[in-house]
Every structure is written in C-alpha cells, then in structure tokens.
Design brief:
Layout (H helix, E strand, L loop, with lengths): L3 H19 L13 E2 L1 E10 L28 E6 L2 E12 L6 E10 L17 E5 L9 E4 L13 E2 L1 E2 L4 E5 L1 H7 L9 E6 L7 E5 L7 E8 L54 H8 L22 H21 L14 H18 L1
Parallel strand pairs: 1-13, 2-7
Antiparallel strand pairs: 2-4, 3-4, 3-12, 4-11, 5-10, 5-13, 6-8, 6-11, 9-10
C-alpha cells in the first residue's frame, strides 16, 4: 500500500514531466555550412595587405605584389592578423529573399574552417576574435588575395557580430542586428559583411574558411513581410537572363524557346481558312493585289546555242565583204572617185573610160 509521501513524490514527478514537455525548444540556430534558407550566398572573396601597390621598398620603387600564399586554397576566404594588425580581410555578399521593410526574426551564418594543411594558424587560440561588420560600399568585386586598396569599405561602429568557434571548427555568426539594418524601410546598405580581426598586439593568427564552391557557408534568415527584393546590383532585372523555362523574352511576340503566346494573332475556334481556289476572290474583295502565279522556272538559253558552228564562222566573213562593197560603191551606190584609186575602184574607173571612148568612136 502506497504511503501519502510516495504518492506525493509520484505526482511531483508527473508534473515535472508535463512541464518539461511543454517547455520551449532551445533557440539554437538550425543551420550548418552548405544549406541556404531565406536567401543565398552571392559572392565571397578576400584581400591581402602584402598585395599593396602603394607600399614602397627602400629603393624608392613600387613593390611588386606578392603571390598568393600557398596555405590558402583556391575558392576559400581568410582573415589574419600579424602582431595585432590587419593582414587579411574577407567579405561575403548575400542575395536575400526579403526586401526593405521586412521584420527580421533571426539571421544566422555558419562558416566551416578549411582542412587544407597549414591553412589555419592559431585559429583556436585564446583571445582570437573575428567580427562581421556591414559593408558600406555598394559595389565590390570578389578577389582571392586581391589588392589591399580594392577591399570593400565597412563600418564596425554601426553594428558588429563576433564569431563563435566550435570545437569542430564551425564558426557561428548571429547577424540579426546587421540584417535589420539591411532591411530597414529606407536602408541603402548592401547585403554584405566584412570579416575582420579584432585582437591586440602581440596576437597573430589566421583563420581560413571553405568558400561557397565547397559549400563552406550556410545561412538561415527568418523574416516576414517586406517589399519584393531586387536582384544584385551587377545583374539588372531587365538583362534578359533566363528563368526556369530557359526562355528569353525578346518583345517580338515569341521567345527563344519557340513558344508562341496565346494572344499572338491566333484564329478563333469557329473560323476557317479560305480554300486555295477562294484566295483570288478574297484578295479582289479586300482590295489587295493578287499574288504572282507560282510558275516553274525553266532554263532560258541563248539564241547562239542553236546556230551551227560553220554558220557562226561565216558571219564575220560576210560582214567583212559587205563592208568592202559599201566602201567601194560609196554612200550613193556608185564608185567614189579619188586621186588614188586601187583595187575594185580603179577597175571601175578604167571600165568607165573604155565605155566613153567606145561611144565617141561611133
């Protein structure tokens, strides 16, 4: 038989189970490197202070940019400090599914450290600190070990989110305050962050994360409302990019995919096309010119093709004789007298003299 004390203990345990079941679930970010929720990573890059065309060596000549350090894999991004000063900075741009005026609940970003040899130096050291700050430059281009002077400008005074490194090398950044700045009603800030060191001398370290191509960045944005977001600045909305269907609108009533819009001059269901024999009548009634008859085209040969070769040879000979007779007779059909007669003309002159002498002899 149960005692009152045991019954009370059982009742208390039951209440504890019920209360624990009704307790809210922990608000840990349900995101990991790779997946993108509420947007996507548009571009990422990093810049190196040693690659600075403004640094001058002792000879007074501009120092040549140093090559990309071999301990930063292609496609990755890195942040480093040397004796408490900036050495490398990184930046990430996001394309969000929400526009100005959205109410941001949370925005979490996760970065995975690179596993490439020597790509991380003292990244788990005590006092290592990397913060995310909003970028203030509207247009920037990604680079890998880019020139220091071309890094995007940023402002860590308006907002900053310190990264928290897990034992597994996953860094978590709570960017909720920064996302609220981006999506404010009248905000002109680009949806980009700069990742920078924030340590004091003599601290030195280097943290390298896998880039978007290696699925090293994950994000989750939870928000409501807001205007329709605009595409990134370097991809105009009317640039003719293809959508899911692969068709590009050309403005000519059809698209590249070959599909014809439903209202592009289609014939009503109860209409019938005129028969071929009715086409002339339809054209006459409408006042339109009749189309030319479609007659077959045949080969038209030259008149000279049917003349025998011997006749062709005699043609220039006959023309030559005719010209000689015409020259001998003159324009009036009679011999032309001249001071120097030869050939046929001379013979005719002699014949005329003989006839004259014969008449006089009679």
């Amino acid at each position: 038989m149960s005692t009152p004390s045991s019954l009370g203990a059982g009742f208390a345990a039951s209440c504890a189970v019920i209360l624990s079941a009704a307790a809210p679930v922990s608000a840990e970010p349900a995101v990991e490197p790779g997946p993108s929720i509420g947007g996507k990573v548009y571009q990422a890059g990093w810049w190196w202070k040693s690659n600075d065309e403004n640094e001058v060596d002792k000879s007074g000549l501009i120092a040549r940019p140093e090559p990309t350090p071999p301990n930063v894999p292609a496609g990755a991004m890195t942040v480093a400090a040397v004796n408490g000063a900036e050495e490398m900075v990184a930046a990430v741009e996001f394309a969000l599914e929400y526009g100005p005026g959205a109410d941001v609940t949370s925005f979490d970003v996760m970065l995975r450290e690179s596993s490439a040899p020597d790509s991380n130096v003292n990244s788990d050291g005590e006092g290592v600190k990397v913060v995310a700050c909003p970028v203030t430059e509207a247009f920037w281009t990604k680079a890998e070990g880019g020139k220091w002077s071309s890094r995007p400008a940023y402002d860590c005074e308006s907002a900053a989110a310190a990264g928290k490194r897990g034992k597994d090398g996953i860094w978590h950044f709570d960017l909720t305050p920064i996302a609220r700045l981006w999506l404010a009603q009248d905000s002109q800030l680009p949806t980009s962050i700069a990742l920078v060191e924030q340590v004091e001398a003599p601290m030195s370290f280097q943290v390298t994360w896998d880039g978007p191509s290696d699925k090293g960045i994950g994000m989750k944005l939870v928000a409501t409302g807001g205007a329709t977001p605009q595409p990134p600045a370097d991809i105009p909305a009317d640039s003719g990019t293809t959508g899911d269907s692969g068709a590009v609108d050309t403005g000519a009533g059809t698209d590249v995919s070959g599909e014809v819009p439903a209202d592009a001059g289609t014939m009503p269901d109860d209409a019938t096309a005129p028969a071929a024999t009715e086409a002339p009548d339809v054209a006459r009634k409408s006042g339109l010119p009749l189309p030319a008859a479609a007659t077959p085209v045949t080969h038209v040969g030259s008149m000279l093709e049917d003349i025998p070769g011997g006749v062709l040879f005699l043609i220039p000979v006959g023309l030559g004789l005719a010209y000689a007779v015409m020259f001998a007779l003159g324009p009036n059909g009679e011999p032309v007298l001249s001071g120097a007669r030869h050939g046929v003309g001379r013979a005719l002159d002699q014949l005329r003299v003989v006839k004259t002498l014969f008449k006089e002899a009679k």
